[in-house]
Amino acid sequence: MTEPSEWPTQAAYRAMWISDTHLGAPEARVEDLLHFLEHHDADLLYLVGDIVDIERMRRRPAWPAAHARAAQMMLDRCAGGRRVIYIPGNHDAAVRALLHLDLSGVEIWPWAVHATADGRRLLVTHGDTHDDHAARGAAGKAVCYAVHGAVHAMVRGMNRRRDAAGQPRLAVGPWFRRRVPAVRRYVERYEQALAAAAARHELDGVVCGHIHCPVLRPSPAPAYYNCGDWIDHATAIVETAQGELRLLDAEGRILESEPPRPSLRPSDASHARGTDPRLHTASASGEPRRSPWPGRGRT
Ligand SMILES: [Mn+2]
Prior knowledge:
- The protein is α/β, with parallel strands linked by helices.
- It has a single domain (11-260), classed as Metallo-dependent phosphatases (Purple Acid Phosphatase, chain A, domain 2, 4-Layer Sandwich), CATH 3.60.21.10.
- Helices cover 31% and strands 19% of the residues.
- The strands form 2 sheets. The chain has an 8-stranded mixed β-sheet with strand order 4-5-3-2-1-11-12-13. Strands 6-7-8-10-9 form a 5-stranded mixed β-sheet, with helices on one face.
- The longest helix has 28 residues, at 137-164.
């Protein structure tokens, strides 16, 4: 393994959030992910669920070398004083059996509270446990997931033909949201449900994944940030040393960034003061009091 000091890092961040890589699923954009990981590094890496698509691999076992390498690269980031916190989602729910364990340095958490360099506290969760409401109950959720699965299977078939013909792939998520009002409403309700979860725990915002809709929305409070995915979008969220969140693409280009905040409110300043940004902390202080944990499902 390469020594941490030899990592070919171009950009180092205070924290980085990656979700929905779906390793083990053939449509995962693994080459893009490997490229991103080779050029981006952070003191604290959050794996925000659906990292390994265990659900999919149960039905069709596949673990190509590139997928194994991407998983290894992410888990190895806990070397050299860095931390990796793995928060399982619904496609890697089996990992929830390992909650609170420390596996060769990788910490497994049901969710976390991240303290930014500028003193904000953000709920970090995959998000599936909050989408019952968004999908209008368990039955609605089952229908949503079934339709979503069927369309994905159809588009996978189309993309195989497009690959063979050298044409660009179709992105399922964006197509869905443009064309199907019910999906657009679902996304809105999901975003509201996640922001409400942050508010319930008196936090400043939420960083999640699950619905494959990358976005940075610092206002209105509470803030809503979604990492996106590595099937349709190939995006990740990073935090700079100053506490600014950015949405990056696989090449490291900034797709969205937060507007500069004037200055810290006094209450926030006390939280931020004295923290060494390099050392800082998924404030593992960090589990909200009430468990958001009943959910199980598929996407
Ligand atoms: Mn998910």
